[in-house]
Amino acid sequence: MTGNEILERIRAIFEENFAIAPERVTLETHLFNELDLDSIDAVDLAIKLQEMTGRRIKPEEFRSVRTVADVVVAVESLLAEQE
Questions:
Q1: What's the fold here for domain 3-82?
Q2: pLDDT by residue, tens only, the chain of 83 residues
Q3: What are phi and psi of 67, to 5 degrees?
Q4: With a threshold of 0.85, does the pTM exceed it?
Q5: Distances, alpha carbon 41 to alpha carbons 44, 45, 62, 79, in Å
Q6: What residues are paired with 67 via a beta bridge?
Q7: Which residues pair with 30 in a beta bridge?
Q8: 36: phi > 0 → left, psi -120 to 50 → alpha, else beta; which?
Q9: What does DSSP assign to residue 23?
Q10: For residue 46, which of 56, 38, 36, 37 has the smallest C-alpha distance?
């Protein structure tokens, strides 16, 4: 899965689960400041990413995620573990 494919999947997750328009979700978008996610939303996002990748996300790995680009990198590393 490419970075662009991951971004599109993340946009779909935000739209379906958080009612956030896909055009608001760019690599530079800050999850908490710009998209108004809270800690519960972050847990929900982590669960959706686990479903998407089939891999468990360790909480300590997800704590440093701040932007959509960080989410893409986290998903890429989860997918790389499968190979």
A1: 1.10.1200
A2: 899 999 999 999 999 999 999 999 999 999 999 999 998 999 999 999 999 999 888 777 788 899 999 999 999 988 887 66
A3: -120, 170
A4: yes
A5: 5, 6, 12, 22
A6: 30
A7: 67
A8: left
A9: G
A10: 56
